[in-house]
Amino acid sequence: METWYYEVVSIDGDYANLKRTDIDSDELKMVARALLPAEIMEGSRLKYEWMQYEII
Predict the structure, then answer these.
(1) For a Cys-Cys bond, which of 5, 9, 28, 29 suits 22, CB 3.0-4.6 Å?
(2) What is the value of pTM for the model shown?
């Protein structure tokens, strides 16, 4: 299983916009906040591995 790293760029209601930080990309990924750790805020760094997000 691969590992990806993200930064929370913005939070919009029940969704958060994530930007990958392990590759050069300007694309944002919209993810439901229910899938993310409850304590995230803009600027939080996340690791996605084994279908789970965790704060790093």
Answers:
(1) 5
(2) 0.90
